[in-house]
Design brief:
alpha+beta; 8-stranded antiparallel beta barrel; 9 strands; elongated
Length: about 525
């Protein structure tokens, strides 16, 4: 037997021993073959595999490295050496070898499969699934890839996907998958019955208003199977009933993660956002999704929202160029004035609108507050040194407001309708001298009588002005007379005081007469 025949004999015997699992003899014959010809990469690779099965890792790595030295594009050599590195927990070197094999041949499904196994060992389940997906795309009949991807799905809590992969691996003849599936089916059957029992108890507790018990039962169902959207939704409803909106939002969100078409979950999460976070934006987004999914209840809610929105945009307002007044039971009048900066002033007087002098200068007035208008509703509280008074009511129109009044001073409550009276800009500029109001005859008649407080108020004003004018004129007349000695018989310096006294008498009489004449003419 020549050297070539001897070399072929050693290779044949080494391969038969390797395939039969006799790795020691396989190593012996391949060593003999290498002694005869050390230029064959595959001979080094198969001897390296035999070393690997005997857990002689360093020898295996040396053989795979020699094979790659002979053939740098030997992709299987990188895969095999990568697996040895993985078994030695040298994950960085293993990852580098698997990636190199993929670079050499992107269509090698084994390279993706083995790198997926490396990711799985490192608990990098998402990357493991990505590589298993690629391996399955390249080799749809790889039962091991389905089985290991099932394991990765299981670690991520994706029970349904994991179960489907085990079934697929089983149909492809994977005995390990078959064994696992048989064990799971027995457990699932028991767990399914247990979960159904808990769910029924939870539903019954919810119907009885025992929401804490319902939450507990639904939680037990989730412990058994965490991939059922309906259970999260039902527990979310129970949380809502006890005003635990934070957990309710969490459960509705989980239900939506599992079933993105769950319109009831969107609708109820929308309500929870309003009640818990006051977040109109998130609530409206969920409501719109529920509407797009055809949820009839969401459609009704959206219609009501749009109606209220339209109503809000058409909110009524008050007028700023005048007063709102009402007649009190004791004969006094209540007056309100509103300003565009949301300030409101309030005063009660026994005079009419014409008598409220200088009152419009709000900086000098004590009874004031801030009003708020929503749609046609208005409310405010005015404060003064005496205390606080609350006003709540409805804007009937720009010229009429209906208010419920509650005093925190004496507990007095009443309902009043306030009517609007406009005043001119000119009258407001002369607020120190009085206010001229545009009103109708009926308003004037309702605020006056033939002999009421207005007559006395006018009498007081005219006599006061007359006395002042008479005193001034009398004093200066006497003072001038003193120097020109119009009356030599009197002491010169007594004349100003004497004339002042006469001036006061004449001014008072003149004011009285003028007031009577004016009031008689106004009737």
């Amino acid at each position: 037997m020549d050297d070539a025949d001897l070399y072929q004999y050693y290779c044949k015997e080494g391969l038969e021993k390797y395939e039969s699992g006799n790795y020691k003899d396989s190593i012996y014959f391949f060593t003999k073959a290498i002694e005869a010809n050390a230029d064959n990469a595959i001979v080094f690779a198969v001897r390296g595999l035999s070393y690997g099965f005997l857990e002689k890792h360093y020898e295996a790595i040396a053989d795979f490295s020699k094979a790659l030295e002979i053939d740098p594009n030997y992709e299987e050599g990188y895969i095999n050496r990568g697996n040895v590195y993985k078994n030695m927990s040298d994950y960085s070197s293993a990852h580098s070898d698997f990636t190199k094999a993929i670079e050499i041949n992107p269509y090698n499904s084994d390279a993706y499969y083995n790198r997926g196994n490396l990711f799985l060992s490192n608990e990098d389940f998402n990357n493991a699934i990505t590589d298993y997906n690629k391996a399955i795309d390249l080799n749809p009949n790889d039962s091991d890839a389905y089985r290991n991807r099932s394991l990765a799905f299981s670690y991520l809590g994706k029970t349904e996907e994991s179960y489907k992969d085990l079934q697929k691996s089983d149909t492809l003849g994977n005995e390990i998958a078959k064994s696992i599936l048989a064990s799971i089916d027995d457990k699932l059957k028991h767990k399914s019955e247990e979960a159904f029992s808990y769910h029924e108890k939870g539903a019954k507790a919810y119907d009885l208003g025992k929401y804490d018990d319902a939450i507990n039962y639904f939680g037990k169902v989730i412990e058994i199977n965490s991939n059922v959207a309906e259970v999260y939704f039902n527990r979310g409803l129970a949380y809502s009933k006890i005003n635990d909106y934070s957990n309710a939002i969490s459960d509705f969100s989980k239900a939506i993660d599992i079933n993105s078409q769950y319109s009831e979950a969107y609708l109820n999460r929308s309500s929870a956002y309003i009640l818990y976070e006051k977040n109109v934006t998130l609530a409206l987004t969920d409501l719109q999704i529920a509407v797009s999914l055809g949820n009839s209840e969401a459609i009704k809610v959206m219609e009501l929202y749009n109606q209220n929105l339209n109503k809000y945009t058409e909110s009524k307002s008050v007028r700023f160029n005048g007063l709102y007044f009402t007649k009190e039971k004791d004969g006094h009048f209540g007056y309100l004035r509103f300003y565009s900066n949301n300030t409101v002033l309030s005063v009660t007087s026994n005079g009419n609108v014409n008598d409220l002098k200088a009152w419009f200068k709000k900086e000098s007035f004590g009874a004031q507050g801030k009003y708020e208008i929503v749609n046609d509703k208005i409310e405010f509280i005015v404060e003064s040194t005496s205390g606080r008074v609350s006003y709540k009511g409805t804007i009937v129109s720009e010229t009429e407001i209906h208010l419920n009044i509650e005093s925190f001073i004496n507990g007095y409550e009443s309902e009043r309708t306030y009517s609007f009276v406009e005043f001119t800009e000119k009258s407001e500029e002369k607020s120190n001298a009085g206010t001229t109001l545009k009103t109708n005859k009926q308003n004037i008649k309702s605020n006056r009588s033939s002999l009421n407080v207005d007559l006395f108020y006018d009498l007081y004003e005219y006599m006061k002005n007359g006395i002042f004018a008479g005193a001034v004129l009398g004093f200066f007349s006497g003072f001038i007379g003193c120097f020109i000695k119009l009356s030599p018989k009197e002491m010169p310096f007594s004349m100003p005081f004497t004339y002042t006294f006469y001036g006061i008498l004449i001014g008072a009489a003149g004011g009285f007469i003028f007031c009577i004449i004016k009031n008689s003419a106004s009737k």
